[in-house]
Design goal:
261 residues, Rossmann fold, EC 1.1.1.304, globular, 7 strands, alpha/beta, oxidoreductase
Length: 261
């Protein structure tokens, strides 16, 4: 099916690989002009080029989501470079293992600065852009299955994702007066470089092969397999589109049946 432009602009952080890349590709296919924002400008550029570059409605931007000024600058560049701003997807994040006894002040600061602070800065920057343009918008952030039920071995990651859910619920109430909806998507085990690294860390820590670690990660999934990035992107597509206009403050699980509410 040919792409039909919808006149809207979306920015995706962490858009250079994995779930972020799949989201950028899906929203572009949906008709959005997309800003592919990533700390790694080379991977972001490859994704944007694959979508036709600026002429095709895709712009690569460098962003450090832990830096508030960097996030605001990325939103400003998306607005000026693509001619509008309607959706932000706060997708960027990291997921190192964090055994309880090994947590340090430095590891707390690093994980929260990216996974949680990045969502706060993205929410602030998007809200400012929407209001300057005189219309509402959609703020969509990455939570996790591990932000609904704490997962063993990744205490800090789980904590950041619980925090994202809590922040999202309050932001949804506070920003509704501006016509802004605020939601999260909560993936489970997805075949991405981030999860592959986590599987390797888990296997190494246990002194087991990677195949063993994959079984540990997927044994609680009702659908009996990890998801593909495109399946997560489909949920973000729904949240970014008009069919979700009456949904705000929610965390939509896309985990193959790991958590049931």
């Amino acid at each position: 099916m040919a792409r039909i432009a919808n006149g809207k602009v979306a920015l995706i952080t962490g858009g250079g690989q994995g779930i972020g890349q799949a989201i950028a590709e899906r929203l572009h296919a949906d008709g959005f002009r997309v800003a592919v924002a990533d700390l790694n400008i080379e991977t972001a550029g490859k994704v944007a080029d694959g979508l036709g570059g600026k002429q095709g409605g895709a712009l690569a931007l460098k962003v450090n989501v832990a830096d508030r000024d960097s996030v605001f600058a990325a939103v400003d560049q998306a607005l000026s470079g693509l001619g509008g701003f309607d959706v932000i997807v706060n997708n960027a994040g990291i997921a190192p293992s964090s055994p309880i006894e090994e947590i340090t002040p430095e590891s707390i600061e690093k994980l929260f600065s990216i996974n949680f602070n990045g969502v706060v800065w993205g929410t602030q920057a998007a809200t400012a852009a929407f209001r300057s343009l005189g219309h509402g918008g959609k703020i969509i952030s990455a939570a996790s299955q591990a932000g609904h039920i704490g997962n063993p071995g990744i205490a800090l990651y789980s904590a950041t994702k619980f925090a994202v859910r809590g922040f999202t619920q309050t932001a949804a109430r506070d920003l509704v007066k501006h016509g802004i909806t605020v939601n999260t998507y909560a993936p489970g085990i997805v075949r991405t470089p981030l999860v592959e690294d986590l599987v390797k860390q888990t296997a190494t820590a246990a002194g087991k092969p990677e195949a063993w670690a994959w079984k540990q990660f997927t044994k609680g999934i009702a659908l009996d397999r990890p998801s593909e990035p495109a399946e997560v992107a489909a949920v973000v597509s729904f949240l970014a589109g008009p069919d979700s206009n009456y949904i705000t403050g929610q965390s939509i699980l896309v985990d193959g049946g790991m958590v049931f509410n």
